[in-house]
Design brief:
By secondary structure, the protein is α/β, with parallel strands linked by helices. Helix content is 35%, strand content 17%. The protein has a three-stranded mixed sheet with strand order 2-1-15, sandwiched between helices. Strands 3-4-5 form a three-stranded mixed sheet, with helices on one face. Helix 2 (38-54) runs antiparallel to helix 16 (394-407), helix 4 crosses helix 5 and helix 16 (394-407) runs antiparallel to helix 17. The model is unreliable at 22-29 (pLDDT under 50).
């Protein structure tokens, strides 16, 4: 039976704005308060989805969330009509209104952690929504995320869904941004690689001093238990706390893996040699041949990696076994990074081709190609059980492009977030989107 790695990309929401909400994310903070272009952002994301579909990759789409989140503002004490809640929040606590308007759910690498059926005890694909409790604006996402994923992967014979972990610091979980799976074939048993920034209960592990470590070891271990993973099919590794303090807020800013290959920066991890040996040994036991590509700091500094998002790329397998790297335009603009990539692809090694995409709107808010997609390994039977409305096709691309053109603004500033009309625009757009994607009622305004 054939198997695939399907990339489900996040559709950028109508309230895409530069709120500068993510402390530790250099790009997010650097562009705070600038005017954004939600329409351009959504169209850039859709263009990447269609391009990968046209290249023969399986591609899906994951819907955005309702914003502003008026229910979240009500829980914080704002009352009255929806318009009055927005007006009062704008007057009394503008940072909370900005947070409630965040379109950060576009970065669906943080939506959940996914384990394929070949790895799990019950032979189903398991999803655990990420609690994202390190940042308030992201911590409010997981209830809707769970409903959307449930509507996409509804067949209980093939799919299992778990609620987010407890929303406390000890179980901080940022989803697939800190999770990679290595395997010989997507449908075969593999090794799941969990990367954490700190331990909540074991002080033997060093912690960063400047920026928060968002993923805990305990959260990663809990997800592995929920998914029924075998000990011999799991490897845990710690991020280098020094690189977290340089802006590497998730592992997918400093490393990316696919198939049997890990592409990583020399300074990404602690105890790197031990980690590589464990990955190699465990993958060999299930028939795999683990390989790694280390980018030396002498060629690309951590600062270069953070500014270009070299590692926040998509590493994709070609039919001939070679690898394709999808990178943002910022990599081409960075002379050292681009020089390294030209050398890499011309060396005849594992990564043979680089394709560049313009994702400026997302990049300026702190998310690149890898942030925008959630990877789900599926066999043919499981793929057939996915809600067909969310699988990218040429007609769906046309419908979504027309939908964006109809509903999205081409400029959004902080002042615009105070306009109650924006909420009505968002709800109207999302109500239509659920019909296009055949999701049913997944948003609070559709349920309540």
């Amino acid at each position: 039976m054939k198997s695939y790695e399907v990339n489900f990309d996040g559709l950028v929401g109508p309230t895409h704005n530069y709120g500068g909400l993510s402390y530790g994310n250099v790009a997010s903070q650097s562009n705070s308060q600038q005017s954004s272009n939600p329409k351009e952002a959504a169209l850039q994301g859709l263009a990447k989805m269609k391009a990968l579909m046209d290249m023969g990759f399986q591609q899906g789409v994951l819907a955005p969330q309702e914003r502003p989140d008026v229910a979240a503002l009500r829980r914080l004490g704002f009352s009255g009509t929806d318009a009055q809640v927005i007006e009062r929040a704008a007057k009394e606590a503008m940072p909370l209104l900005v947070a409630s308007c965040s379109a950060s759910s576009m970065w669906v690498a943080n939506a959940a952690t996914v384990s394929p059926s070949a790895d799990t005890a019950d032979g189903r694909v398991h999803f655990t929504a990420a609690n994202l409790n390190c940042k308030y604006h992201r911590s409010i996402e997981h209830p809707t995320t769970s409903r959307v994923l449930g509507a996409m992967f509804a067949n209980q014979q093939h799919f299992a869904h778990h609620a987010a972990l407890p929303a406390v610091a000890q179980f901080g979980d940022e989803g697939a941004a800190n999770h990679t799976r290595f395997c010989r074939e997507y449908g075969e048993a593999g090794v799941e690689f969990f990367v954490f920034g700190r331990s909540a209960f074991d002080n033997r592990f060093p912690a960063p001093q400047k920026y928060p470590a968002r993923q805990t070891l305990e959260a990663s271990q809990a997800v592995a238990r929920l998914h029924g993973l075998r000990d011999e099919g799991v490897v845990y590794a710690q991020q280098n706390p020094d690189v977290i303090d340089q802006g590497v807020f998730h592992n997918d800013v400093i490393a990316v893996g696919n198939g049997e290959v890990l592409f990583y920066h020399e300074d990404a991890f602690l105890e790197t040699d031990k980690m590589l040996a464990e990955l190699q040994g465990k993958l060999a036991k299930v028939g795999g041949n683990f390989q790694s590509v280390c980018v030396p700091r002498s060629a690309v500094t951590v600062d270069d990696a953070v500014r270009s998002y070299l590692f926040n790329s998509q590493l994709l397998s070609r039919p001939d076994g070679s690898m394709l790297l999808i990178v943002p335009q910022e990599c081409q603009a960075n002379e050292r990074v681009w020089t390294y990539l030209q050398s890499l692809t011309s060396s005849g090694g594992l990564i043979r081709e680089v394709k560049v995409f313009d994702l400026k709107q997302s990049m300026q808010n702190g998310g690149g190609p890898a942030c925008l997609r959630l990877r789900v390994a599926l066999n043919e039977t499981e793929l057939a059980a996915v809600n067909p409305g969310v699988i990218m096709t040429a007609p769906l691309y046309g419908s979504l492009t027309a939908w964006v053109e109809k509903h999205y603004r081409d400029r959004l500033s902080e002042t615009d977030l105070t306009d109650p009309q924006l909420l009505l625009e968002c709800r109207t757009a999302l109500d239509e989107l659920t019909q296009i994607l055949k999701l049913g009622a997944v948003y609070p305004f559709q349920i309540n």
